[in-house]
Amino acid sequence: MPFKPLSDGEVLAQVRALARAGKAVPTNHLRERMELRQIDWGQVVECLKLGRFVERPTIPNRSGAVCYEFKMGGVFDGEAVAVAAALYPERRVIVMTTM
Known about the structure:
By secondary structure, the chain is of the alpha+beta class. Helix content is 33%, strand content 36%. It has a five-stranded mixed sheet with strand order 1-5-4-3-2. A hairpin with a 2-residue loop joins strand 3 and strand 4. The radius of gyration is 13 Å and the shape is globular. The model has no long low-confidence stretch (mean pLDDT 95).
């Protein structure tokens, strides 16, 4: 069966559902940037649940599991928050950094 990529809307729906289910995972790099930028994990999760794409999802050209890399942003707790993350469909969201 041929591979059928997810639409932007499908990626967004999965990101939001996985974030609500507690399946968003921070990287060590993200933790460092959160501390540096005084952003807390709650704001990052809110960005995944309620934010909008700043950069549309793309599938990187590399071997391994299919993932969709994207950037999301919004204003949460009065602060602009943006994150770069990767969706591994129906499994988890890896949050790589915050801006």
